[in-house]
Amino acid sequence: MISYAMSGTGSWFAVIGSAILVASFVWIRHRLVDFRIRLIGGKRAYVLASNLYSATSLYIQIGKHQYHSCLAQWCNETLDRTQKHCAELSLTGSKRVIITREPEQIKTILATKFNSFGHGRQWHQLWLPFLGNGIFTTDGPEWHRSRGLIRPMFVKNRLRNLVIFDKCTEKLISKLPPSGTTVEVKSILYRWSLDTITEFLLGKCVDSLDDPDHEVAEAMATAQRIQMYIFVLNPIAPLIPKGNYYRSIKKIEEFIEPIIQRAIELPLEEVEQISKNDAQYSFLHSIARVSKDPKVIRDEIMSVLLAGRDTTAATLSWVLYEMSHRPHTWSQLRSEVLVELGTHGMPTYEALKNMTYLKNVLNETLRLHPAVPINMRQALEDTTIPGEPGEPEIVLLKGDTVTINTIGLHARRDLYPPVSKNFPDPGIFSPERWENWTPTPWTYTPFHGGPRICVGQNFALTEMAFCLVRLAQKFERLEYRGNWHAQTLRADIIGTPALDVPITFYQASNQ
Ligand code: HEM
Q1: What beta strand segments (E) does 168-327 contain?
Q2: Scanning 31, 171, 236, 292, which has its CA 20 to 30 A from the CA of 150?
Q3: Cα 457 to middle of ligand 1, angstroms
Q4: Alpha helical stretches, state H, 342-374
Q5: What family is this (predicted)?
Q6: What is the three-class DSSP state of 117?
Q7: Beta carbon of 375 within 6 Å of any ligand 1 atom
Q8: CB within 8 A of 262, min separation 6: which ones?
Q9: Which helix (H) or strand (E) holds 89?
Q10: What is the C-alpha R_g of the chain?
């Protein structure tokens, strides 16, 4: 009896002893970081959690809010409570995570001290099976080479040909139900953007609008979903079952690799000939002019496929979500479109760029719902970013992670002019505000900035504008058919509406 009690007491001693040991270890690491920061000359960001206990409960909160699709909102409320725009936490005392929504700091990370920050080795490893050594996973000279390979396909002249957008958007419209019937637009827009991007990349589209259960569409969704778990839960990533992940990647490869092979085998003169014909020339041909390495081409195609699908589909879902709630915005857009093109005129690149209200609608949507709501960088060396005005610089040590909180930046009321007749409350969707207002630099960054600014920005804006114009030509009215106020953001890699987006389209009576 006594020995049983003693062994029970012994276990408790062991547990308490271990807890004290771990907590002391973390405490020592915190002090070592303090010491290194003092040596460099600067300070920490505001500390959200200073010990193992508070950091653990913060991580539990993070997991809980991510699970309930409200992490971004919680992040902002947490920063609001501290009245800071930059804060840090660390579970183990070192390898801190710094979160910022401060324009000057974001500018420093993305532009001024571009070489001090990158995606880092861990990011590279986590994404390797899916994206290989493509533009998203690399830094330094490797990234530079990728960017050089990709850029020629996004120059203005290449985007002037809107045949691909026309083909896929016509198909999208043909899939909408008859006037007055409700449709869940998010899923249809995701299929439209997958078809558009595969046509652009490979000259062959997946046809997911015709075949919603297309295996490549499903494989993309599965690979991305599991990739997100691998990314968010990276310390325990080896424990995540990955059978479906590898099978899905293989499915996508089986679709793209034969097309890559055919492009590589084309004689150079033939590729040169095709390059003169915009309708035939794809992203794949553009890369094949520079590299014949199938792995290099595969990695870049996978990266642009990932970047190009969800971003535009999610943004257009938000556009329709917002506009269906504010009917005057749709009427205003439609009036502009009808003046410029009538009900059937084919949108040209120039016509799209001329339509101010259309541009304002997209800008306003990306302000409230940036497609990349939060993003990561890693400090590649010991460095500093600006502190609050009048305060010392904030020190980042090699290996620290920075979370760029774009959605939080865009939500900062102090960065906007006071509310007035011309400038409605910044929390409200109002494309009109852009008629009299231009954001100050680095306060509006949906495509980021600096050398790594979204290379597909113009492609994305043209593609989305094209689709919106076609919809506005055909439909005179939209109605939201759900609980509009219940909608929230699901911020995986791309910020998308967490719930369905049920919309009823009403066709104009003269069509
Ligand atoms: C609403 C639409 C879009 C938004 C808001 C958006 C936003 C962004 C952002 C914030 C980044 C920076 C990521 C980082 O540095 O970590 C980025 C990078 C990139 N985007 Fe986009 N994007 C959009 C659409 C597209 C499209 C349609 C394509 C391709 C067709 C594309 C291709 C890329 C590529 C290749 C990069 C990597 C650039 C680099 O690392 O140098 N994006 N995008």
Answers
A1: 182-184
A2: 171
A3: 7
A4: 349-354, 356-368
A5: Belongs to the cytochrome P450 family.
A6: strand
A7: yes
A8: none
A9: strand 86-89
A10: 25
